[in-house]
Amino acid sequence: MANVSVYNMEGKEVGTLELNDAVFGVEVNEHLVHMAVVAQLANKRQGTQKAKTRGEVSGGGRKPWRQKETGHARQGSTRAPQWKGGGVVFAPSPRDYTITLNKKEKRLALKSALTSRVQENKFIVVDEMKFDEIKTKKFQTVLNNLKVEKALVVLDGDNKNAVLSARNIQGVKTAAVNTINVYDILKYNTVVATKAAVAGIEEVYA
């Protein structure tokens, strides 16, 4: 089992924590991680784009001029794509971009992402993240003490003051144990988690 240092909010090491290999020590499956990221980004797409083809644009039912002897190129409709006000060639239409992964694939992808962060020493455990008031400056001070910038901060329970303190810091996102995802884990340089959050992740995904 991997051991990681546990820090306090002042950035001082206060102990160590043994991570569960079932979650933080699996064999990294890069293919599944890639599939999970692609699926997450695809599922965010609305798919509501629409343009009209020549068959959907109003008008243009009558041939603009006779076929021969006018000096013009032959035309069948004023709503053909080359005309102003004509339809769009291969126009986009509403579609569903949803990509589905089964539960086992999702879980293994998440475990792989967490394992990769531990292996790269980009997983920091904090004993607690408690704030008596909503103060962005205090949260930034904690990040400075931990020497992290772009970070995903995983919190346990109802930690409203910490969430609100972090929301205006650029490059920082907070997440609960049940809302972490592969894309966010890989997007941010470092994952910072409280001891209670680590225990919650191990309980849910082990």
What does this molecule look like?
By secondary structure, the protein is α/β, with parallel strands linked by helices. The chain folds into 2 domains: 3-30 and 99-205, 3-Layer(aba) Sandwich (Ribosomal Protein L4, Chain: A); 46-96, no CATH class. It has 7 helices and 6 strands; from the N terminus they run E-E-H-H-H-E-H-E-H-E-H-E-H. A 6-stranded mixed beta sheet has the order 2-1-3-6-4-5. Helix 5 links the parallel strand 4 and strand 5 (172-176). Helix 2 packs across helix 3 (103-119). The longest helix is centred in the middle third of the chain and has 17 residues, at 103-119. The radius of gyration is 27 Å and the shape is elongated. The protein starts with a strand and ends with a helix.
Into which percentage range does the β-strand content fall? Answer: 5-15%
Assign the CATH class of the largest domain.
Alpha Beta
The helix fraction, in percent, is 25-40%
Tertiary shape = elongated
The domain tally reads 2
- Strands ordered across the widest β-sheet: 2-1-3-6-4-5
- Which fold name corresponds to the CATH topology of the largest domain? Ribosomal Protein L4, Chain: A
Q: Give the low-pLDDT segments.
A: none
The major sheet is characterized as: 6 strands, mixed
Mean pLDDT: 93
| CA distance, first residue to last residue | 13 Å
By helix and strand content, what is the structural category?
Answer: alpha/beta
Query: In the CATH hierarchy, what is the superfamily of the largest domain?
Result: Ribosomal protein L4/L1
Task: Give the second-level CATH assignment, the architecture of the largest domain.
Answer: 3-Layer(aba) Sandwich
Counting DSSP E segments of at least 2 residues, the number of strands comes to 6
Secondary-structure element series = EEHHHEHEHEHEH
Radius of gyration: 27 Å
The number of helical runs is 7
